[in-house]
């Protein structure tokens, strides 16, 4: 880099071409540069490089919000310098967060009296929320076992093999054994009967997912609750349920109000939801709410006083931004129940447009259900010549980012493509995507087998590629399952 001082001051002609203005010399990438550069140059260099990222609006791999109203963008920018943990300094922001917790707890039918405060907290996302919920279950279980004079060193958690990676993290980081109900072809969620069979005296909770990451399908929480009530009666245990409603928590209340999955079921003690998924806020906000005060052990709550008044906190981190909390409050009051229902209805409609368009090609098996998270998961009927990874790769040329992935154990021979429908995915885009699918299928038919990347066996045009090269080709949005042959865990992140 870049502009020598003389160039700035004495030779204006040097400003006249774009490239020589900012990028005549290279800047070090992995070492802090010795000298400063002008702010315009820094902006331009970074902005140029960022152009090679995918376009968030065409990123159909993720549930996470990529569009908000300009008024809310403005509110977020205006509060970007507020640290959320400084409750004494920013009492209004703290109050908005409490209002959000209360609105969400009531949306999930928490048994709260008039004016009674809900128990919950804003987090960075569902992952942090799941860690907190898991810790509460673990501690309650340990306390009970200790009081009974029973061993408390082998806690476990029962889930389906379709869990999101955050639960695996919880299990590993906080030393809880993960007992997974296997999937099978054609059935990609946790089977409640098998889950309840796996429950033993060391089970701290069963986790059900409202909106499986893989297929969007809602698990049958009501059946799980009823079976578990029976088992608890027989055994004298009181194994509870946590619902990971990361994506479904802001869908079910609006589209399927009759569906009982939340605090209406007595064993559901805590629920997490991602504010940044169908809560319609940009990345960086999640929520966890507890049924009642007694479901969150006091000893996990810290009272800090270094910022002024005595404040209770129960989060894994300390400082973080406030913008997302403020944005969540904006969405809740701006849209209201009516607005959220409209958004979810529209997502559902656009999902149907896409699903029917894909069915019409005659080339795909649709794996996702119509009621669940608005997404379409599908696989090729015939993948003998070209597979789902090649379809995904070719769609990248049109700008679309669509992941292909293998299902977890024991359905790993099934590969699916998944398109997530968000608020900003309009009908027009859905129709365009269908027509681009048509083009890709047509092109693939013209090509000999395997000419494109065969991601599944790590070759491109028959040439073995390094893991790094492969990853670049697949997109950075998901990790390879095949590498991890032993567990073949699903590691898509959103
Ligand atoms: C997205 C997702 C998560 C992780 O949520 P973050 O908010 O991204 O941390 C957990 N569980 C499920 C079911 C998800 O879909």
From TrEMBL:
GO annotations of cellular component type: cytosol
Cofactor: pyridoxal 5'-phosphate
GO BP annotations, alphabetical order: L-glutamate catabolic process
InterPro entries: Glutamate_decarboxylase, PyrdxlP-dep_de-COase
EC number: 4.1.1.15
GO molecular function terms listed in the Swiss-Prot or TrEMBL record: calmodulin binding; glutamate decarboxylase activity; pyridoxal phosphate binding
N6-(pyridoxal phosphate)lysine: residues carrying this PTM: 277
Keyword field contains Ribonucleoprotein: no
Coiled-coil regions listed: none
Signal sequence interval, chain numbering: none
Protein origin, superkingdom: Eukaryota
Keyword entries, A-Z: Calmodulin-binding, Decarboxylase, Lyase, Pyridoxal phosphate
Annotated family: Belongs to the group II decarboxylase family.
Name under which the protein is recorded: glutamate decarboxylase
């Amino acid at each position: 880099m870049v502009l020598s001082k003389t160039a700035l001051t004495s030779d204006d002609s040097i400003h006249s071409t774009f490239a020589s203005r900012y990028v005549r010399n290279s800047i070090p990438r992995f070492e802090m540069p010795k000298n400063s550069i002008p702010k315009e140059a820094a902006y331009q260099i970074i902005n140029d490089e960022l152009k090679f990222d995918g376009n968030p609006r065409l990123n159909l791999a993720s549930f996470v919000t990529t569009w908000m109203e300009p008024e809310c963008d403005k509110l977020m920018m205006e509060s970007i310098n507020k640290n959320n943990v400084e409750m004494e300094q920013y009492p209004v922001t703290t109050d908005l967060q409490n209002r959000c917790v209360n609105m969400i707890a009531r949306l999930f039918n928490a048994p709260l009296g008039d004016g009674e405060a809900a128990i919950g907290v804003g987090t960075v996302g569902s992952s942090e929320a799941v860690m907190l919920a898991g810790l509460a279950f673990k501690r309650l279980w340990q306390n009970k076992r200790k009081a009974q004079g029973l061993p408390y060193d082998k806690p476990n958690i029962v889930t389906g093999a379709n869990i999101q990676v955050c639960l695996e993290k919880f299990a590993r980081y906080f030393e809880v054994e993960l007992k997974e109900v296997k999937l099978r072809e054609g059935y990609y969620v946790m089977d409640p009967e098998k889950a309840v069979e796996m429950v033993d005296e060391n089970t701290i909770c069963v986790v059900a997912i409202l909106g499986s990451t893989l297929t969007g399908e809602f698990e049958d929480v009501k059946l799980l609750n009823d079976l578990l009530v029976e088992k608890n009666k027989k055994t004298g245990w009181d194994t509870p349920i946590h619902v990971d409603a990361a994506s479904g928590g802001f869908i079910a209340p609006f589209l399927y109000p009759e569906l009982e999955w939340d605090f209406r079921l007595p064993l559901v003690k805590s629920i997490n939801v991602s504010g940044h998924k169908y809560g319609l806020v940009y990345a960086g906000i999640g929520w966890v709410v507890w049924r009642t005060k007694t479901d969150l052990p006091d000893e996990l709550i810290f009272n800090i006083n270094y910022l002024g008044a005595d404040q209770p906190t129960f989060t894994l981190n300390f400082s973080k931004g406030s913008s997302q909390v403020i944005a969540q409050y904006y969405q809740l009051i701006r849209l209201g129940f009516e607005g959220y229902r409209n958004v979810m209805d529209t997502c559902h409609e656009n999902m149907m447009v896409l699903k029917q368009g894909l069915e019409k090609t005659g080339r795909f098996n649709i794996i996702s259900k119509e009621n669940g998270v608005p997404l379409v998961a599908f696989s090729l009927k015939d993948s003998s010549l070209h597979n789902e990874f090649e379809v995904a790769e070719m769609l990248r040329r049109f700008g679309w980012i669509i992941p292909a992935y293998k299902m977890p154990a024991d359905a790993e021979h099934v590969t699916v493509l998944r398109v997530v429908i968000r608020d900003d995915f309009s009908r027009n885009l859905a129709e365009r995507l269908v027509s681009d699918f048509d083009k890709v299928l047509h092109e693939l038919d013209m090509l000999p087998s395997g000419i494109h990347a065969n991601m599944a066996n790590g070759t491109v045009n028959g040439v073995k590629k390094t893991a790094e090269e492969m990853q670049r080709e697949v997109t950075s949005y998901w990790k390879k399952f095949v590498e991890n042959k032993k567990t073949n865990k699903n590691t898509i992140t959103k």
